Amino acid sequence: MLIYRLVFGQDYGQVRCAFHNDTRASAGIGPNGEYNCFACGAKAHDEVSFICKYFGVGPDRARKIKFNLERIQNYKYTKLPVDQAQEAYLKSVGISDAVIKKYFFKSRAGKLMYNHTWNGYSVGYTWFNPTTLPAYNASAGKYKYDKNNVGGMLTPYNDVMKYKKLVICEGEKDMLVAKSMGLPNAVAKIGGAKSYIIGGDNVSNKDIVICYDCDDAGREGAEQDATILTEKYAATVRIIDLALGKGEDLSDYFVKYNHTLQDFINLLQSTPVFVPKPKTKEDKFLNFIESLTEVELDELEKIIKNKKEKEND
User: Fold this and answer.
1) What pTM was computed for the model?
2) CA distance 271 to 263
3) Which distant-in-sequence residues (6+ apart) come within 8 Å of 257 by Cβ?
4) In which order are the strands placed within the sheet that holds 104-106?
5) What was the pLDDT predicted at 281?
6) What's the CA gap between 297 and 235, in Å, rounded?
7) Residue 27's beta-bridge partner residues?
8) Which residues contact 302 (CB under 8 A, 6 or more apart)?
9) Residues 179, 98: Cα–Cα separation, whole Å
10) Torsion angle of alpha carbons 170, 150, 116, 195, nearest 10°?
């Protein structure tokens, strides 16, 4: 039961609850994936139900997350140290030695790979495919996601769990440059600016900075995710405007324009807290439906069915 090993490091027995500040291992995982906390009352009848609650998604998306996380375990790369050309490229885009060593490897085919990890498990891969490297493939994108990567998920997820304050970047390169510049709490959203962010309990009530690319997709994605994080998870969110050219990003801010970490901090401090636009009744209803777990959706369907039967009597 992979999701439990990712979250707790074990998939059976007593664990510290993921849904409250637990210090006594108040929750238990059963042999069939049941989850029950005797302190706060959090429950899940199986892994999919737990994923619904943990990530704040509906059952269809939870099943897809479960499938993709499990399938990625079947992809075993030979992980070799990056070669000199790959190291030179990564340094040229502003990524430090320490970050290169921690997150990158060269595959047996010579590809430069970023490894998405969570508690020691590989939960995705991104192929960095710049034109300057010998393994360049013109038929693939500059950054090619593994097909099993979970769109909207944050990486590296251990840092999402660890830090009270987060800087969410649009892509891995921006995040890795930010870490290299002294922002250890930088994370990236997988799948592009407009993929719907998977937040869950680990972003609740946090201070979050969104720093997406300077283009229409980046601005729209930033507002979309800021709204989700604010309304669904009670996070305090700021959307940073880097005031760069169209399509430029955080790595350009630091590397191309030579801004410092203090410049970024000053910009952050002058950025107001995001306030979502008022929602229509339809928007509120859809948000409510998406927030329900599989069990709650089943109960809602029963209630609606009973109501219609009574009206037709």
Assistant:
1) 0.84
2) 13
3) 244
4) 104-106, 112-118, 121-128, 143-145
5) 65
6) 25
7) 15, 37
8) none
9) 10
10) 0
Tell the burial category of 223 from Cβ atoms under 10 Å away from its Cβ (0-12, 13-18, 19+): middle
Domains 2-74 and 154-269 share a fold: no
Helices marked H in the chain: 2-8, 47-55, 59-71, 84-92, 97-103, 157-162, 172-180, 216-233, 250-251, 261-269, 281-291, 294-312
* Fold of the 2-74 domain: DNA Primase; Chain A (3.90.580)
Q: Which pLDDT score, from 0 to 100, does residue 306 have?
A: 84
Q: Cα-Cα-Cα-Cα dihedral of 24, 29, 30, 33, to 10°?
A: 170
Identify the CA nearest to 218 among candidates 201, 235, 198, 241. 241
DSSP 279: P
How many CA atoms does the CB half-sphere of 211 hold within 13 Å? 33
Sheet holding 165-169, edge to edge: 154-155, 186-189, 165-169, 207-211, 236-239
Phi, psi of 207 (to 5 degrees): -90, 120
Per-domain residue ranges of the chain: 2-74, 84-145, 154-269
Kindly give the parts of the chain with pLDDT less than 50. none
Strand-pairing partners, residue 239, are: 210
Q: Alpha carbon of 313 to those of 16, 236, 299, 300, 304: distances in Å?
A: 49, 49, 21, 20, 14
Identify which of 43, 47, 7 has the alpha carbon closest to the alpha carbon of residue 31. 47
Residue 252 phi, psi (nearest 5): -60, -40
Q: Which CATH class is domain 154-269?
A: alpha beta
Predicted confidence at residue 146, as pLDDT, reads 79
Name the amino acid, one letter, at 266.
N
pLDDT at 244: 96
* Distance separating alpha carbons of residues 172 and 162, to the nearest angstrom: 18
Rg of the chain over Cα atoms, rounded to whole angstroms, equals 21
In the three-class reduction of DSSP (H, G, I as helix; E, B as strand; rest coil), residue 4 is classed as helix
Contacts of 94 (CB under 8 A, 6+ apart): 177, 180, 181, 251, 254, 255
- The residue count for the chain: 313
